[in-house]
Specification:
single chain; mainly beta; 2 domains; five-stranded antiparallel β-sheet; 2 helices; 21 strands; globular
Length: about 325
C-alpha cells in the first residue's frame, strides 16, 4: 500500500509539471512570423488566358482572426522586358486574369511577374521552354475489373538531346454516351446522347509517374505511365409504374488527347514538391518543404510548352 501511494504521488507531481510547462509559455516567446503573399501562375504559349492567383499565408502562431484567402486588391504586373501588362482581378473566378493578347506568351522568352498589395511586394522570373514535344507513338487498350471497364493509354516521346529537360504528361478522353431520361408520368424512358471530357489517372509505379526529367537520360526515349479512365457502365432504374429499365451507355470515343508538357525547372520542382508532400502517408516522416521561386513570398511562377497528339477513331 505504501509503494502504491508513493507511485500515485509521483505521477501526480509529474502531470502537474507537464501542465506547468504548457501554461507557463509566454506569447512573447513564440516565433513571430508575418503573413506572406502567396502567388501561383503558370504561363504557356498554348493557354488562351494569363491567370495569376494571389493569396496570403497563415503563420502557425497567427492571430485567430487572420483568415488568409484570396487578395482581390493587389496590383499584378507581367512583363517580357519590353512590354508590360497589368492583370485585372476576375471577381467571378477569384483570380487575376487577362486574355493572352494583352501580352503574348512566346517560346524561349523570359517573363517577369510582380505583385503588391500596397504593403507587401513580391516578384519572380521564368523562361518559357523553347520547344514543344509531341508524343511519337501510343497504345490504347481496355481493361476489365468486375463490372467496370477502363480505357487505358500509354505513349512515348523523344527527349531533346544536349539540354536539361523537365516533363509532365497529361491525357484526356472526349466521350459520347447515352443517359436515360424518363418521360414524365409514363413510366417510359428515352435516351439522351451527351458528350463529356474525362481526365486519365496515372498508375503510379517506382520511377514512373507523370513527372519526369532527363537526368542521366539525355536524348533517350521516354514513356508515360499507364493512364486509366473508367467508362460508363449499364445502369438499372425503377420507373414510376414499378417496371425496371436498364440503360446501356453505347459509349463512343470522340477523341483522346495526349500531351507532353516541356516545363521549366520552377514548374517541375513546385509540382513535384506538392505531389511528394501529398503522397507521404507516414506520420513519422518529416514534412517536406514546398518549392518556391517567389522572392519575398511563397508560391511559384513557372511555365511550360505543350505538345499534343490527338487520336480520333476512324
Amino acid at each position: 500500500m505504501f509503494i502504491r501511494n508513493i507511485l500515485f504521488l509521483f505521477l501526480t507531481l509529474l502531470l502537474a509539471a507537464c501542465e506547468s510547462l504548457v501554461t507557463d509559455v509566454d506569447n512573447g516567446d513564440l516565433p513571430q512570423v508575418e503573413s506572406k503573399l502567396v502567388v501561383q501562375s503558370f504561363i504557356s504559349p498554348q493557354s488562351s488566358r494569363i491567370n495569376v492567383v494571389v493569396s496570403e499565408s497563415i503563420p502557425l502562431f497567427a492571430e485567430p482572426d487572420l483568415k488568409g484567402g484570396v487578395i482581390p486588391n493587389a496590383i499584378v504586373r507581367l512583363s517580357d522586358g519590353a512590354r508590360e501588362a497589368v492583370i485585372p482581378f476576375d471577381t467571378a473566378n477569384q483570380l487575376y486574369s487577362a486574355d493572352k493578347a494583352v501580352l503574348p506568351i512566346l517560346p524561349g522568352k523570359t517573363y517577369f511577374l510582380s505583385v503588391t498589395d500596397g504593403v507587401r511586394s513580391v516578384s519572380a522570373t521564368c523562361t518559357v521552354p523553347a520547344s514543344a514535344i509531341v508524343p511519337e507513338s501510343y497504345k490504347i487498350d481496355t481493361s476489365y475489373s468486375g463490372q467496370d471497364t477502363s480505357l487505358t493509354v500509354k505513349f512515348n516521346w523523344k527527349d531533346i538531346a544536349g539540354q536539361t529537360n523537365y516533363y509532365r504528361v497529361r491525357a484526356s478522353l472526349d466521350l459520347e454516351y447515352s443517359l436515360p431520361e424518363e418521360i414524365s408520368g409514363t413510366g417510359q424512358f428515352t435516351e439522351k446522347r451527351v458528350r463529356n471530357r474525362f481526365n486519365f489517372n496515372w498508375d503510379d509505379t517506382i520511377g514512373r509517374n507523370d513527372f519526369r526529367n532527363d537526368v542521366n537520360l539525355d536524348g533517350s526515349e521516354f514513356n508515360s505511365p499507364i493512364g486509366r479512365v473508367k467508362l460508363p457502365h449499364p445502369l438499372s432504374y425503377s420507373t414510376s409504374n414499378g417496371t425496371v429499365y436498364t440503360s446501356y451507355p453505347k459509349s463512343k470515343i470522340v477523341s483522346i488527347t495526349m500531351e507532353v508538357f516541356n516545363t521549366d525547372e520552377h514548374y517541375f520542382k513546385y509540382h513535384r514538391s506538392v505531389q511528394t508532400r501529398g503522397d507521404s502517408d507516414n506520420p513519422f516522416v518529416e514534412p517536406s518543404l514546398i518549392y518556391t521561386n517567389i522572392e519575398g513570398g511563397l508560391g511559384c511562377f513557372g511555365s511550360y510548352n505543350s505538345g499534343q497528339f490527338i487520336y480520333r477513331p476512324k
